[in-house]
Design a protein that fits this description.
By secondary structure, the chain is α/β, with parallel strands linked by helices.
Protein backbone atom coordinates (compact mmCIF):
# COMPACT_ATOMS: atom_id res chain seq x y z
CA UNK A 1 0.00 0.00 0.00
CA UNK A 2 1.35 3.39 -0.94
CA UNK A 3 1.14 6.02 1.80
CA UNK A 4 0.93 9.70 0.96
CA UNK A 5 1.78 12.69 3.09
CA UNK A 6 -0.95 15.28 2.47
CA UNK A 7 0.50 18.69 3.17
CA UNK A 8 0.30 21.06 0.25
CA UNK A 9 -2.82 21.13 -1.90
CA UNK A 10 -4.85 23.52 0.21
CA UNK A 11 -2.00 25.21 1.99
CA UNK A 12 -3.02 28.43 0.27
CA UNK A 13 -6.00 28.64 2.61
CA UNK A 14 -4.90 31.13 5.25
CA UNK A 15 -6.38 31.63 8.70
CA UNK A 16 -8.66 34.60 9.28
CA UNK A 17 -8.14 34.52 13.02
CA UNK A 18 -5.64 32.83 15.30
CA UNK A 19 -2.31 31.28 14.47
CA UNK A 20 -1.21 29.11 11.58
CA UNK A 21 1.03 29.60 8.61
CA UNK A 22 0.61 30.10 4.96
CA UNK A 23 1.80 27.39 2.66
CA UNK A 24 2.48 27.38 -1.05
CA UNK A 25 -0.57 25.92 -2.71
CA UNK A 26 -0.76 25.77 -6.49
CA UNK A 27 -0.60 27.83 -8.54
CA UNK A 28 2.32 29.61 -6.88
CA UNK A 29 5.11 31.90 -7.96
CA UNK A 30 8.41 30.08 -8.14
CA UNK A 31 11.92 31.49 -8.36
CA UNK A 32 12.51 34.04 -11.13
CA UNK A 33 8.82 34.44 -11.81
CA UNK A 34 8.10 30.97 -13.14
CA UNK A 35 4.57 29.75 -12.39
CA UNK A 36 4.12 26.26 -10.99
CA UNK A 37 0.65 24.74 -11.40
CA UNK A 38 -1.04 21.49 -10.45
CA UNK A 39 -0.44 20.06 -13.91
CA UNK A 40 3.31 20.48 -13.40
CA UNK A 41 3.38 18.30 -10.28
CA UNK A 42 4.83 14.81 -10.58
CA UNK A 43 2.21 12.15 -11.28
CA UNK A 44 3.44 8.69 -10.23
CA UNK A 45 1.70 5.63 -11.67
CA UNK A 46 -1.34 4.40 -9.71
CA UNK A 47 -0.60 2.09 -6.79
CA UNK A 48 -2.51 -1.12 -6.09
CA UNK A 49 -3.84 0.56 -2.94
CA UNK A 50 -3.20 3.97 -1.43
CA UNK A 51 -3.53 5.16 2.17
CA UNK A 52 -3.96 8.82 3.06
CA UNK A 53 -3.48 9.53 6.74
CA UNK A 54 -5.59 12.51 7.75
CA UNK A 55 -9.07 13.38 6.49
CA UNK A 56 -8.79 17.16 6.71
CA UNK A 57 -8.85 19.57 3.74
CA UNK A 58 -5.47 18.45 2.39
CA UNK A 59 -6.15 14.73 2.81
CA UNK A 60 -9.55 14.88 1.13
CA UNK A 61 -8.24 17.12 -1.65
CA UNK A 62 -5.44 14.62 -2.28
CA UNK A 63 -7.98 11.78 -2.49
CA UNK A 64 -10.01 13.79 -5.01
CA UNK A 65 -6.92 14.57 -7.08
CA UNK A 66 -5.89 10.91 -7.24
CA UNK A 67 -9.41 9.71 -8.05
CA UNK A 68 -9.61 12.24 -10.89
CA UNK A 69 -6.36 10.81 -12.24
CA UNK A 70 -7.84 7.33 -12.36
CA UNK A 71 -6.47 5.91 -9.12
CA UNK A 72 -8.64 3.35 -7.30
CA UNK A 73 -8.66 1.64 -3.90
CA UNK A 74 -7.83 4.90 -2.12
CA UNK A 75 -8.31 4.81 1.66
CA UNK A 76 -8.47 7.93 3.84
CA UNK A 77 -7.98 7.36 7.58
CA UNK A 78 -9.01 9.95 10.16
CA UNK A 79 -9.21 9.77 13.93
CA UNK A 80 -12.29 11.99 14.14
CA UNK A 81 -15.96 11.28 13.51
CA UNK A 82 -17.42 12.16 10.09
CA UNK A 83 -17.96 15.92 9.74
CA UNK A 84 -21.45 17.46 9.92
CA UNK A 85 -23.20 18.06 6.62
CA UNK A 86 -22.08 21.43 5.23
CA UNK A 87 -25.71 22.53 4.75
CA UNK A 88 -26.79 21.79 8.34
CA UNK A 89 -27.94 25.23 9.48
CA UNK A 90 -28.21 24.08 13.08
CA UNK A 91 -24.48 23.39 13.18
CA UNK A 92 -23.07 26.32 11.21
CA UNK A 93 -25.33 29.17 12.34
CA UNK A 94 -22.89 30.32 15.06
CA UNK A 95 -19.83 31.36 13.07
CA UNK A 96 -17.89 32.51 16.15
CA UNK A 97 -17.64 28.89 17.36
CA UNK A 98 -15.45 27.85 14.43
CA UNK A 99 -11.94 28.43 13.13
CA UNK A 100 -12.31 30.39 9.91
CA UNK A 101 -10.18 30.11 6.79
CA UNK A 102 -9.82 32.66 4.03
CA UNK A 103 -9.55 31.13 0.56
CA UNK A 104 -7.65 33.49 -1.71
CA UNK A 105 -6.88 33.16 -5.39
CA UNK A 106 -4.55 30.21 -5.05
CA UNK A 107 -6.98 28.24 -2.90
CA UNK A 108 -9.90 28.98 -5.23
CA UNK A 109 -7.92 27.99 -8.33
CA UNK A 110 -6.75 24.78 -6.67
CA UNK A 111 -10.32 23.81 -5.78
CA UNK A 112 -11.48 24.66 -9.30
CA UNK A 113 -8.75 22.45 -10.74
CA UNK A 114 -10.00 19.63 -8.51
CA UNK A 115 -13.57 20.15 -9.73
CA UNK A 116 -15.00 20.87 -6.27
CA UNK A 117 -15.11 24.67 -6.06
CA UNK A 118 -18.85 24.80 -6.82
CA UNK A 119 -19.55 22.43 -3.93
CA UNK A 120 -17.41 24.54 -1.57
CA UNK A 121 -18.34 28.06 -2.69
CA UNK A 122 -22.01 27.46 -1.78
CA UNK A 123 -20.92 27.78 1.84
CA UNK A 124 -18.39 30.61 1.69
CA UNK A 125 -18.84 34.30 2.49
CA UNK A 126 -17.04 36.89 0.38
CA UNK A 127 -15.05 39.58 2.17
CA UNK A 128 -13.42 42.62 0.60
CA UNK A 129 -11.21 43.76 3.44
CA UNK A 130 -10.06 43.16 6.98
CA UNK A 131 -9.58 44.89 10.32
CA UNK A 132 -6.13 44.90 11.93
CA UNK A 133 -5.21 45.54 15.56
CA UNK A 134 -1.73 46.40 16.86
CA UNK A 135 -0.43 46.67 20.45
CA UNK A 136 -1.04 50.15 21.76
CA UNK A 137 -3.02 51.09 18.65
CA UNK A 138 -6.59 52.15 18.12
CA UNK A 139 -8.83 49.79 20.15
CA UNK A 140 -11.26 49.81 17.22
CA UNK A 141 -8.51 48.65 14.89
CA UNK A 142 -7.75 49.81 11.37
CA UNK A 143 -10.06 48.81 8.56
CA UNK A 144 -8.47 47.92 5.23
CA UNK A 145 -10.57 47.57 2.07
CA UNK A 146 -9.01 45.91 -0.98
CA UNK A 147 -10.22 47.14 -4.35
CA UNK A 148 -7.40 46.05 -6.65
CA UNK A 149 -7.31 42.28 -6.08
CA UNK A 150 -8.27 39.83 -8.82
CA UNK A 151 -9.80 37.44 -6.30
CA UNK A 152 -11.91 38.44 -3.33
CA UNK A 153 -11.26 36.31 -0.26
CA UNK A 154 -13.91 33.67 0.38
CA UNK A 155 -14.29 32.77 4.06
CA UNK A 156 -15.45 29.40 5.35
CA UNK A 157 -15.21 27.52 8.64
CA UNK A 158 -12.39 25.01 8.41
CA UNK A 159 -14.67 22.17 9.57
CA UNK A 160 -17.34 23.19 7.07
CA UNK A 161 -14.74 23.01 4.30
CA UNK A 162 -14.00 19.46 5.48
CA UNK A 163 -17.72 18.70 5.37
CA UNK A 164 -18.06 20.04 1.82
CA UNK A 165 -15.07 18.04 0.56
CA UNK A 166 -16.27 14.95 2.44
CA UNK A 167 -19.68 15.23 0.74
CA UNK A 168 -17.99 15.75 -2.65
CA UNK A 169 -15.94 12.57 -2.19
CA UNK A 170 -18.85 10.42 -1.07
CA UNK A 171 -21.15 11.67 -3.84
CA UNK A 172 -18.70 11.49 -6.74
CA UNK A 173 -15.88 9.09 -5.90
CA UNK A 174 -17.45 6.41 -3.70
CA UNK A 175 -16.18 3.76 -6.11
CA UNK A 176 -12.58 4.88 -5.77
CA UNK A 177 -12.27 6.39 -2.28
CA UNK A 178 -13.16 4.79 1.06
CA UNK A 179 -13.32 7.05 4.12
CA UNK A 180 -12.45 5.49 7.48
CA UNK A 181 -13.31 7.44 10.65
CA UNK A 182 -12.29 6.68 14.20
CA UNK A 183 -8.96 5.26 12.98
CA UNK A 184 -5.67 6.62 14.27
CA UNK A 185 -2.41 5.72 12.57
CA UNK A 186 -0.16 4.32 15.30
CA UNK A 187 2.72 3.01 13.19
CA UNK A 188 3.97 2.66 9.62
CA UNK A 189 6.24 -0.22 8.59
CA UNK A 190 7.89 0.42 5.23
CA UNK A 191 8.77 -2.40 2.88
CA UNK A 192 12.47 -3.08 2.44
CA UNK A 193 12.35 -1.96 -1.19
CA UNK A 194 10.53 1.25 -0.26
CA UNK A 195 7.65 0.44 -2.63
CA UNK A 196 4.95 -0.19 -0.07
CA UNK A 197 4.08 -0.10 3.61
CA UNK A 198 1.84 -1.56 6.28
CA UNK A 199 -0.26 0.67 8.52
CA UNK A 200 -0.95 -0.15 12.14
CA UNK A 201 -4.24 1.48 13.11
CA UNK A 202 -5.84 2.11 16.47
CA UNK A 203 -9.63 2.22 16.61
CA UNK A 204 -11.08 5.16 18.55
CA UNK A 205 -14.52 5.21 20.11
CA UNK A 206 -16.38 8.12 18.45
Amino acid sequence: MRILACLVLLASAHPIAGGGRRGAGPPRRAARGRAVTISALASPPPAAATAIVGGGPAGLATAIMLARRGWRDIHVFDRLAPPPAPDDAGVWSETARFYLLGLGGRGQLALRALGCWDDVSRFTTRVVGRRDWSPGGDPDGVERIFVDRKFATEVIARDRLVGALHAHVTERYAGAVTLHHGCECARVDWAADGRGATLQLSLIHI
